[in-house]
Amino acid sequence: MSAGSKEANEQRPEGLTPIIAMQDVQFQYPGAEGTALRNINLIIQPGEFIAIAGTNGSGKSTLCKCLNGLIPNYYVGDLSGSVQVAGLTAAEETVSSLSRKVAYVFQDFENQLVRPTVYDEACFAPLNYGYADYRERGQRALAMLGIDHLKEQWIWQLSGGQKHLTALAGALSLDPDIIIVDEPVAQLDPYHAKLIYEKLKLLNEQFGKTIIVIEHHTEFIADYCHKVILMDSGTIRWVKPVQAALSAVDELAALHILPPQVTLAVRDAETAAGQVHLRDRLFPITIEDAAAYFSEAKILSQTNNALVINEPIRKSVRESVPASNPLVTFTNVSYGYKTITRERYPVIQDMSIRFYEGDRIALVGNNGAGKSTLLKLISGIRRPSAGQLDVCGYLTKQASPEQLADFVAYVYQNPEEMFIEDSVRKDVEYFLKSRNSPDYSSFVDEILHRMRLTDLQDRDGRLLSGGQQRRATLAIGLAMRPTVMLLDEPTASLDASSRREMTDMLAQLDGQVKTTVIATHDMQLVAEWANRVIVMHNGAVALDTDQRSLFSHVAVLEKTGLLAPQITQLSQRLGIDPPSLSVAEFIASVVGDPSSPHYVNRSKESAAIGSH
Amino acid sequence: MEAIKQSMLDKLSVEQIKIELMRTAFGRQSTFLSRFDPRMLLVWYSFFAVAPWFIHNKVVLLGLLVPMLVLTLSSKVSPLVLIIMGVGLVSEISYILLGSLLFGGSLEAVWPLLTLTLKILLISLASIAVFSSMDPEKLSDALLSIGMPGQFSFGVSYGYRMLPILIEEYHNLIHSFRLRGRAPAKKGFLRVNSLIYMAKIGVRAFYPLLLNTAKRTRTTVEALEVRGFTYALVSPEAKKLKLSHMQVHALDFVFLGCSLIYVIALFSLGHYLSFSFN
């Protein structure tokens, strides 16, 4: 047992005094028009695991920055009301005294890492505060998170998940009572996000830390948090226990927070079955509860019990031979890069695969599986070290990226690396201008309009919100009129409404491009958008199939660390075959209501795919 | 021939330069010089970086060159760095030669200028040997302990942490330009057009790099605040704690002593030899 847990246990009996108490707190940023926080009254007990949800700009981060003293010591604004944190009166303290009690992991955690190695990073804060045992503290924090083996690693060599854990370790080394994590899921893939939450759970349960997460991924909230604070335009709308909070489906949806799929499923199934909901009705929020609920067959008994979709199981896309020539052909392609020890590290190994017109390919697999490298190879900015790669009739080894750009558009994972001009419009025009396209201006207008960027066209891309940035990069890609569109994680770090919007825009691409390849961790996007799924593992194709059969390959999913969408997992548990890919589909199969508009839509869609 | 050209191009690629830079910064090799206390190395270096300017005796200069070459080789310096230095020296000597011949001079004029080149070579080798043996973390601590401001010494080690990220981002930005731009259709004489095109991109890519970095800094500054960086700047205990790991050993004095004895010996020898030459 480390010292941290002992201290925590000693604190437990005193748990009656709240660890955080805010009374009538109001804050206004200097120079800002309105108040960022209003009438904040909040009590948090030690050992709670709390989620703060709310739309962008609702004051979530501002609230948390009041707790570690950044407000009002660093952001000198108008703060009124009283804030008590871990026995300290915030108004009388400094950032340095408060941040020893309150650890903060930022949303863009990579920028909070300031030291060259993991161990240095873990020791940094205790060293600054002059703790003589800073080495032990760093070591202990690494051990608590189970990353001692990374100790000697350089920060730049770490994966996203490892960096997040390192940032957490750097905060933990001060042995804080409260840990605030700002949107852990946004920048991480689902596998690592789950890992982070497991660690937070451990810190909460074993070491008695109070955990506050800013989060809008309700599936994580459902699995890990005790309470939810809902914020709306600078005020706290309510604080509720997690189940009651997530059952407020319509209220959350109005604030662009997507309730868990299983909760929606139960609600919609009951509605479809003609039940009227009371206001305080609690719905199941986890897969376990939902599975138990549906097994009791409250719904099913009212309808036919046969859980079958009247649709033949579609053949794998690959079994039908496409009539057209492939647009992209990999023939025994390998690629590796040199590491700083001058050794070659293989990323893609002896890969042979073809992409055809009409393919909507989702490229999935864990980090380091080679997804991004595959896209870079197609775009021509990486060249195969062995084998041949043919893209639209060009061998990439002999063609320059500029030549391939006539056929291929590659949209980066990080939008900021695509903004090379000082306004969105100039960025969108860049390709056409460099090729002296006649009359490009009306075409650009049209694209900006379609991506809803007309009002933003003169802004610098860097200063837009996450969702706007993604739209802008998509517009840049579209303006190239590509045959092949490559997108790297287009829905990563977007909130629910931007995500939905992005998925809709991706669905529109069909008429514009001949084939689209998306590297993604977003299994809902895979389920709803793709017609071909390629699972990569260790630089090779582990599976090439369609999205429906993907989720029945349990062994492959496990090996590659992929998680099916909640609704798919639920339908598998209930023995629905083929498994549902969306809530609407699920409802249709359990309630059997073919007149549901979603159901009709999907039938049309699958008919179209079937004829492919 | 084509294969050789290809392999030369590979060696010169941005990717390759990136690896060599990273090797130089993060190679973490133990070398002869890396054993010594960084402050001692700074003292040693400050002599050998300045002294050659005031030495006119070629025997002494040549005598100094020998240990510098040995130390540089023992520091396992990246070939890229040596090649760049070599190119610089060769081009310098050749333009001096060319200039002197053009203006009616003879090889006579080259001789004194070669002394200057020798001095520059000595100083460059000393810098390479010392700084490639001392990782920036050590340098940063050494600077702090000799009284440089905390912000400055932190800047050195922060630059060290950011370097790979900036290089990576710069590389991606260059790709952004290439993926949307158009290379000149005619490569021109000696690929001059392509070179100009790439050089232009190389410069333009710095602007987005600067802007992106500026944007990122906000979180970094907040994080530094929260993690006690400003607190440590004004706290003498924190500084003491930070530097407590640095210790001067007997070996450091042995090294300084040997260097001193060698230099004295060299001067006496130089004195004697120059007399006998005259």
TrEMBL record, chain A:
CDD domains: ABC_cobalt_CbiO_domain1
Gene Ontology cellular component list: ATP-binding cassette (ABC) transporter complex
Localization in the cell: Cell membrane
EC numbers, comma separated: 3.6.3.-
Gene3D superfamilies: P-loop containing nucleotide triphosphate hydrolases (3.40.50.300)
Domain of life: Bacteria
Topological category with respect to the lipid bilayer: Peripheral membrane protein
Principal EC category: hydrolase
Molecular function per GO: ATP binding; ATP hydrolysis activity; ATPase-coupled transmembrane transporter activity
Keyword Cell membrane part of the UniProt annotation: yes
SMART domains noted in UniProt: AAA (SM00382)
Keywords in alphabetical order: ATP-binding, Cell membrane, Hydrolase, Membrane, Nucleotide-binding, Translocase, Transport
Residue span(s) of domain ABC transporter: 20-258, 328-563
Family according to the record: Belongs to the ABC transporter superfamily.
Protein name: Energy-coupling factor transport system ATP-binding protein
UniProtKB/TrEMBL annotation, chain B:
CDD domains the UniProt entry points to: EcfT
Predominant localisation class: membrane
Locations listed in the record: Membrane
Transmembrane segments: 42-73, 80-103, 109-131, 250-273
Gene Ontology, cellular component aspect: plasma membrane
Keyword set, alphabetical order: Membrane, Transmembrane, Transmembrane helix
Pfam families: CbiQ
The protein's name: Energy-coupling factor transport system permease protein
InterPro entries: ABC/ECF_trnsptr_transmembrane
Gene source species: Paenibacillus endophyticus
Membrane topology listed for this record: Multi-pass membrane protein
